[in-house]
Specification:
- By secondary structure, the chain is of the alpha+beta class.
- The chain has a 3-stranded antiparallel β-sheet with strand order 1-2-3, with no helix packed on it.
- The protein is elongated.
- The model has no long low-confidence stretch (mean pLDDT 91).
- The chain has helices at residues 7-17, 44-47, 104-112, and strands at 27-32, 54-59, 75-80, 85-87, 90-94, 97-98.
Length: 116
């Protein structure tokens, strides 16, 4: 994994490297926020559900995921606000809004049913 950015990116890369474990640089899971009622709170269990975010889990991967990363020295999660997600050459999310034609109507229904 390549980590790019400013000062914070260098600090994060050094922290991951401090584990001396190559699995700390592997993506363990991704979550796409689909709950219009969730609010960014600092609690990762709610934050990863905030409408339109992408949450990245890096490092240790629980066996329940049945993935290939497996054991790592630690695990960390990060939230991307207002992401743009492109899959197979098609935009799925743009600046935190679901725009793929197969998701637009569902997104509208979910957001209109949200309690504020």
């Amino acid at each position: 994994m390549k980590i790019e950015g400013g000062r914070e990116a260098k600090i994060f890369e050094a922290w991951l490297g401090s584990f001396n474990d190559p699995n700390m640089f592997k993506i363990a899971h991704l979550s796409y926020g689909c709950n219009p009622g969730a609010r960014l709170s600092g609690n990762i269990l709610e934050d990863e559900r905030v409408w339109g975010v992408v949450e990245w889990g890096i490092g240790y991967q629980s066996p329940t995921f049945k993935g290939k990363v497996g054991h790592a020295s630690s695990h960390t999660d990060g939230i991307c606000l207002y992401p743009t997600v492109i899959g197979d050459g098609e935009k799925v999310i743009e600046r935190g809004e679901f725009i793929h034609p197969e998701l637009v109507d569902l997104a509208k229904k979910l957001k209109s049913g949200a309690k504020g």
